[in-house]
Amino acid sequence: MRQILLITGGVIAAIAFVIGIFTFNQVNKEEAALTARIQVRSQVLAESLVESIQPAFEAGATSSIKRTIDKFVGDQRLSGLAVFDNTGTVILSSDNSPDVIDAELLAAVMGRGEPDGGFARNESGLLYVSVVPIIGENQETIGALASIQSADYIDATIGSIWRDNIIRFLLQTMLIAAAIFALARWVFFKPLYDLAESMRAARRGEAVDDDKIGGDLLLPLSSEIAKMTGSLRQARHAASQEARMRLEKIDTPWTAERLKEFIKAYVKDRPIFVVSNGEPYVNTRGKSGIEWTVPAGGLVTALEPVMEATGGMWIAHGAGEADKAVVDKDDKVRVPHDEPRYILKRVWLTDEEVAGYYNGFSNEALWPLCHMAHVRPVFRKEDWTEYRKANALFAKTLLKEIQGVERPLVFVQDYHLALVPGIIKKSRPDAQVAIFWHIPWPSAAQFSICPWREEILHGMMGADIIGFQTQQYCNNFIDTVASEIEARIDLEHFSIFREEHQTFVKPFPISIAFPGIAEREEKADPALLSRLGIHSTHVALGVDRLDYTKGIPERLKGIEFFFERHPEFIGHLTLLQIASPTRTSVGTYKKHADAVLAEVERINARFGTRDWKPIVFQHRSFSHAELRTLYRLSSMCLITSLHDGMNLVAKEYAAARGDESGVLILSQFAGASRSMKGALQINPYSAEETAEAIFKAASMPKTEQHRRMKALRTSVRDYNVYRWSAEIIKALAELD
Ligand code: ADQ
Questions:
Q1: Rounded distance, CA 295 to CA 678, Å?
Q2: pLDDT tens, position by position, 180-217
Q3: 238 in helix, strand or coil?
Q4: Where in the chain are all domains bearing CATH 3.30.450.20?
């Protein structure tokens, strides 16, 4: 656009210059011709009058001269006439003759005895004054006659020439600007846009019409690009063929490509709608304008690669300060921002709803209710009211989006939205709905303390499939249903019949996207550890949200006990604890954060030396790339959750260790402990066990590390997040 304006501006300036010069010339010529004409006419008139009044002038017959000049003025439509004696004094003048005669002009005419003239201006406009000498019989100048004529038409003619040319200039400018815009658009910009669009389409793997790439103007470039997009298509085709083949084989790894093919095969073109509280991208205002970040948390880590692979729509709460600024009128934005692959639709909640539904019922009631971490759930009626309202709002938003979509696939996430499946199924019985519970499901006895347990269970059972992380949580759920509501339980198929609706309860252990080759080959730059002030031989790494279920105080106790038992490691081993702030508006979390920080300080004061600290505590989020580097640089990763649905950090650690080194210390209360057999399992409540595991990891021979890490990596590679979502989608599709 700027370029078009520059070109147009340049052309207009050139036209203005040319038209200006031409107009100036034309005006000069016209002015000269009109002046000559008025000069001649005035002089001829004045001379003819002088001839007729000369005898009377010499005879001093003033009254006869007066009559003659008055008549002449009337006949010739002059503005005035005046007769002067040889001293330059007016003897006679016509009625209302303007007083514009220049004394110098008069003196010059009488001195030379020759006629002359000039322009004058008064309030009535431009005038031409012609002065003719009156010559006596002795050939001496005896007086002069001045005729005054209106020359307004010269002004008018010059003005109209300027006006006409300015109008011509404006018309030409408009026409030329329009022509330049049209030409630039069609000849230059359109081919460029087409080219960019073709490349985008090729990148998305869509068919590109090669003839349309760039048009004639960009022929040399477009033929090269056509070849490139052709090869890209071939590569994609080959990859998808390969994926189709692999689809049939159980023992080949699941990839984004394979998931895409799988979805095509199983659900054809039915779009997938994901609904969760947390959003995959948060927009904030930064120094360079609106920025985006991926929030720390297991749900996003798992689902984002799936959505990138499958497309569709993700509905989530827009909690970022600049979230509203980037959505369209339907509250949608295409993400990832740098390479859009699916639609994120944001739901807006009031502060009151966030306080009651999210901080209150979700995080102060359901979260502690489902986790055995000895934090008492808080059940407030007003939080429950907000929870119901917010669930209804998410469901309403989804129902609007699935209007007109036949048998939509709906995938509801987590404990924040337990009531959504019920609401959806009521309005759209044809929708196939799954809900995945990312956190543990407690025992029936523990769940029975919830005052609104029945409504929660009914809401969840609106789903066709309820997924949990482990078989144990499925068992707990079935027990809970059996003891709380009237329903028929089919233990053979692990399903529940209620009001003619069948809900299957199945374990789907969540995972991560196993890294591709590019990530595997990334170098782990040790400078990151130096920047964090860590120079120890051994680094024990902890990566968690600062949540009381993650057992960070227990981990600190473990490390303290380790240094007590093995003082030879003082100065040589550092615990790097990365803890991203989480749920900071909830009182329990604030207290927990303060307690953890105080413990870190206490232990650092107890064992720290001048240039070494036993614990480096980072109270912030790190990027995925930074985390990968830290996973690779640490000798062990510590997971000490008191209770955890799965724990993806354990899987991320194994996935990052392409060198098959490093040791995973894993709590027996994390869902991940079911499948991650190469880990050193611990009971995090026992500081001794944790300390011994740290010692074992720090002294473990490389061969044992390789053996264990190989097993861990195989478990993650074989059951990655693509397989997780494929299994859920398959279970949904098989309901038909
Ligand atoms: P979370 O409780 O959030 O998830 P987890 O599974 O460990 O727990 O996932 C945490 C994710 O956040 C990981 O991807 C990790 O890399 C990231 N993360 C943590 N701290 C971070 C930091 N400081 N900076 C950047 N990233 C950080 C819930 C359940 C889990 C379950 C998941 C998925 O509580 O039990 O495994 O959902 O279902």
A1: 29
A2: 878 877 777 777 777 777 777 666 656 566 565 656 66
A3: helix
A4: 30-150
What's the pLDDT band for 548 if we cut at 50, 70, 90? very high
Q: Do residues 68 and 52 make contact, with C-beta atoms less than 8 angstroms apart?
A: yes
- Read off the pLDDT band of 630 (50, 70, 90): very high
Q: In this structure, what DSSP letter does residue 250 have? A: T
Between the CA of 685 and the centroid of ligand 1 the distance, in Å, is: 21
**Is the pLDDT confidence value at 105 over 80?**
yes
Taking alpha carbons only, the member of 303, 312, 308, 513 closest to residue 414 is 303
- How many other C-beta atoms can be found within 10 angstroms of the C-beta atom of residue 531? 9
pLDDT tens digits, residue range 301-332?
A: 888 888 888 889 999 999 999 999 999 999 99
Atom number of ligand 1 nearest to Cα 512: 14
CA atoms within 13 A on the CB side of 598: 6
Q: How far apart are CA 323 and CA 283, in angstroms?
A: 5
In this predicted structure, the answer to whether residue 716 has a pLDDT above a threshold of 60 is yes
Distance 302 CA to ligand 1 centre (A): 9
Are 213 and 221 in contact, with CB atoms under 8 Å apart?
Answer: no
- Return the residue whose CA atom lies nearest to atom 1 of ligand 1: 298
Q: How far is the CA of 304 from the centre of ligand 1 (A)?
A: 13
User: What is the atom index within ligand 1 of the atom nearest the CA of 550?
Assistant: 2
Q: Quick one: tokens of 172? A: 């030409």
According to DSSP, the residues that pair with 148 across neighbouring strands are 80, 129
- The pLDDT of residue 212 is 57
**Two tokens at 626?**
């930074």
One-letter amino acid for residue 718 of the chain? D
Is the pLDDT score of 225 beyond 90?
Answer: no
Mention every residue, 6+ apart, whose C-beta is less than 8 A from residue 528: 626, 629, 630, 633
Instruction: Please give the DSSP secondary-structure letter assigned to residue 515.
Output: P
Q: In whole angstroms, what is the distance from residue 395 CA to residue 391 CA?
A: 6
Distance CA 655, CA 657 (A): 6
Q: Do 131 and 143 meet the contact criterion of CB atoms below 8 Å apart? A: no
Q: Is 652 in the pocket of ligand 1 (CB under 6 A)?
A: yes
CA 682 remoteness from chain centre = 45
Ligand 1 atom index nearest CA of 621: 24
Residues of the chain with CATH 3.40.50.2000: 264-507, 522-718
- Looking at residue 285, its pLDDT comes to 95
Report the nearest atom of ligand 1 relative to the CA of 672: 36
Residue 644 DSSP symbol: B
Ligand 1 near 672 CB (within 6 A): no
Distance CA 697, CA 681 (A): 11
Closest CA to ligand 1's atom 4: 298
398, pLDDT greater than 60: yes
Of 695, 582, 677, 681, the residue nearest 640 (C-alpha):
681
Chosen CATH of 30-150 out of 3.30.70.20, 3.40.109.10, 3.30.450.20, 3.30.70.2190: 3.30.450.20
The topology (CATH level 3) of 522-718 is Rossmann fold (3.40.50)
Q: Are 150 and 79 in contact (CB under 8 A)?
A: yes
Average the pLDDT over 1-12 and give the result: 78
Q: Which two tokens stand for residue 613?
A: 């600290």
Q: Is the CB of 580 under 6 A from ligand 1?
A: yes
CATH 3.40.50.2000 fits 264-507, yes or no: yes
SS3 670: strand
Judge contact between 327 and 318, C-beta under 8 A: yes
Helix (H) and strand (E) counts for the chain? 25, 23
